[in-house]
């Protein structure tokens, strides 16, 4: 049993492998994946498997394989300020990565069937905001989750720029999913055992692209046995940012610009010699058959006439030449959170400093 890419020793190595296999292809997606450690969304006793390219399920908690999330993030073509709806939002791992790209003026909503998973997602979100070293590198669009069946969303709900469904969609529900999209929006979902990207090009016009062969557990149908009536899911309202929030965003943005300017000034005053590079032969290959795990099957990219017929290719990769060996006792310094240091150094009341830092523990 194996995944689309090799297992990593840590989150960064997993992302390196996904990049090498070309599942991650854009800088924005790479930054989001590196910012959030996949292991943080696992229960402690299962973290040894966090960096394998496999799905994981425990009770109602479920994570898709990293290669699937990579393809979803790339297909969604996320941009700052867009609105996003995650159907079957689960642990919130995907929603949080999306929130890093959407930025402070985006909309980030999730619908999850199981209330215990909603609580788990909220705990993981709170942990990320309060403790992650990478949080201050972004302005975050915090996801909001509601409990309910995503096939019972109220018909008067707003439409979204981007929609993802994390369960198999039956053909009879395709139009229902499409109607959640704005014109110009993108929907990504498993449809007829293919991860499918649908773009709404007009009020009644669509473009469809098959991305991957997959097999997801199907959407759970609404159960009206108890009352005979549907329980409509009301999505969170699209709220306007408070003046306090807007001020915090503006101040943090200004401080980041100052830090960047100071760093550029220091670099200009003492330029270091650029690293020398040597070439290394790397053999890349595409995987054809990948994995079956807990009703989720992952396969390689669907063949395209324009693709190279070869399954592998030799490439040359530039790597920095090894510098002089450093004494083994020397360890790299931990990364410095310059934004936090700058805020704490400002002549401001402590409550205002803590507000600017989102009351983070680190």
From TrEMBL:
Keywords: Cytoplasm. Residues 310-324 have a biased composition (Acidic residues). It is found in: Cytoplasm. Transmembrane segments: none annotated. InterPro entries: PCMT (IPR000682), SAM-dependent_MTases_sf (IPR029063). SUPFAM superfamilies: S-adenosyl-L-methionine-dependent methyltransferases (SSF53335). One of its GO terms (molecular function) is protein-L-isoaspartate (D-aspartate) O-methyltransferase activity. Gene3D superfamilies: Vaccinia Virus protein VP39. It holds the Pfam family PCMT. CDD domains: AdoMet_MTases (cd02440). Residues 302-336 are annotated as: Disordered. Its main location: cytoplasm. GO terms for cellular component: cytoplasm. Signal peptide: none annotated. Belongs to the methyltransferase superfamily. L-isoaspartyl/D-aspartyl protein methyltransferase family. This is PCMD2 protein. It comes from Corvus moneduloides (New Caledonian crow). The gene is Pcmtd2.
């Amino acid at each position: 049993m194996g995944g689309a890419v090799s297992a990593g020793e840590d989150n960064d190595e997993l992302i390196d492998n996904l990049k090498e296999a070309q599942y991650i292809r854009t800088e924005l997606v790479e930054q989001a994946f590196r910012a959030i450690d996949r292991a943080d969304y696992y229960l402690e006793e299962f973290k040894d498997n966090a960096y394998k390219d496999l799905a994981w399920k425990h009770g109602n908690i479920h994570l898709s394989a990293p290669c699937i999330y990579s393809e979803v993030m790339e297909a969604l073509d996320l941009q700052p300020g867009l609105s996003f709806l995650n159907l079957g939002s689960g642990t919130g791992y995907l929603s949080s990565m999306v929130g890093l790209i959407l930025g402070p003026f985006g909309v980030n909503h999730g619908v999850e069937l199981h209330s215990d998973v909603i609580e788990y997602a909220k705990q993981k979100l709170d942990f990320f905001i309060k403790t992650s070293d990478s949080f201050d590198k972004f302005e975050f669009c915090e996801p909001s989750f509601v409990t309910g069946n995503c096939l019972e969303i109220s018909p008067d709900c707003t439409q979204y720029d981007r929609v993802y469904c994390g369960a198999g969609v039956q053909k009879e529900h395709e139009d229902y999913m499409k109607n959640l999209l704005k014109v110009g929006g993108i929907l990504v979902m498993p449809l007829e055992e293919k991860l499918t990207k649908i773009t709404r090009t007009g009020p009644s016009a669509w473009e469809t692209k098959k991305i991957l062969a997959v097999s997801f557990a199907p959407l759970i149908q609404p159960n009206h046995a108890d009352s005979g009536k549907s329980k409509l899911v009301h999505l969170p309202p699209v709220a306007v940012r408070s003046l306090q929030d807007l001020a915090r965003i503006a101040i943090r943005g200004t401080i980041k610009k100052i830090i960047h300017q100071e760093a550029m000034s220091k670099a200009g005053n003492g330029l270091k010699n650029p690293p020398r590079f040597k070439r290394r032969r790397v053999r890349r290959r595409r995987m054809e058959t990948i994995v079956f795990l807990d009703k989720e099957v992952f396969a390689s990219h669907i063949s395209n006439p324009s693709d190279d017929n070869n399954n592998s290719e030799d490439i040359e990769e530039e790597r920095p030449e090894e510098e002089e060996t450093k004494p083994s006792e020397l360890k790299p310094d931990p990364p410095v959170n310059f934004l936090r240091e700058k805020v704490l150094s400002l002549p401001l009341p402590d409550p205002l400093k803590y507000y600017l830092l989102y009351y983070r523990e680190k």
